TrEMBL record:
Residues 26-226 form the Alanine racemase N-terminal domain. Its cofactor is pyridoxal 5'-phosphate. Transmembrane segments: none annotated. One of its GO terms (molecular function) is pyridoxal phosphate binding. The keyword Iron does not apply. This is Pyridoxal phosphate homeostasis protein.
Length: 228
């Protein structure tokens, strides 16, 4: 197993680098966020032994469950899944970053608990770029107002935007989602918001995301194998 994980990690790094070159971008423009959801503490430990220390998870309970046995491993847990407001307190306690900030009540709750913890947190705003009803995220047209409102929350440092593209074999439709997020960032910058990061692209679509300007790809199955 050890050899297998190391080999898949290396292969993903090479594929991401190739996608950067194909897109005419520098290889170190794009960070890989390994997504460990559903995988156990043993797998995370193995990834740590490869030098990885920042992992994406989509459930708060799962971060809490893994953070305890892995305390001391120097891991930054990144929340990438839909977040209920009543979980904001746990997130403020255990997560290093939230990429799924998508509504005012959640921002207010997170800020309140972070203040209580005496810390600040980087966050990305999740934007809904796909028409699928199953996808979460702030509506594109609500982004400017939401960005303005964030100045009230001194514990939340907005660094960029995140999205999930439509699940489709149609590359043009997938690219449209990624392009929409990149356009959102350009408009935000034109409006004076200093945001850099675009978290977009997963195992099945990271090449298209990198072509559209992704700065961070969230990769689970291509690194850790298929989930149950
Ligand atoms: C699971 C997940 C990923 C990774 O998906 P893979 O297809 O396994 O690479 C990325 N982003 C989010 C929000 C996820 O929940």
């Amino acid at each position: 197993m050890t050899g297998a994980l190391a080999a898949r990690w290396q292969a993903v790094r090479e594929r991401v680098a190739q996608a950067c070159v194909q897109a005419g971008r520098a290889v170190d423009d794009v960070t890989i966020l390994p997504v460990t959801k559903t995988f156990g503490v043993d797998v995370v430990e193995e990834a740590v032994s490869l030098g990885l220390h920042r992992f994406g998870e989509n459930k708060v309970q799962e971060i809490v469950a893994k953070a305890t046995p892995l305390a001391g491993a120097g891991i930054d847990w990144v929340m990438i899944g839909h977040l209920q407001t009543n979980k904001a307190r746990d997130v403020a306690r255990v997560a290093a970053e939230v990429q799924s900030l998508d509504r005012p009540e959640l921002a207010a709750a997170l800020d309140r608990y972070l203040q209580a913890e005496g810390r600040a947190m980087d966050c990305l705003i999740q934007v809904k770029t796909s028409p699928e009803p199953s996808k979460y995220g702030l509506a594109v047209e609500d982004l400017p107002g939401f960005l303005r409102s964030m100045s009230a929350y001194s514990s939340l440092r907005v660094r960029g935007l995140m999205t999930l593209a439509i699940a489709s074999d149609n590359e043009a439709d997938v690219r449209t989602c990624f392009r929409t997020l990149a356009e959102c960032r350009e408009r935000a910058r034109d409006g004076g918001f200093a945001i850099d990061r675009l978290s977009m692209g997963m195992s099945g679509d990271f090449g298209l995301a990198i072509a559209e300007g992704s700065t961070e790809v969230r990769i689970g199955s291509a690194i850790f194998g298929s989930r149950g």
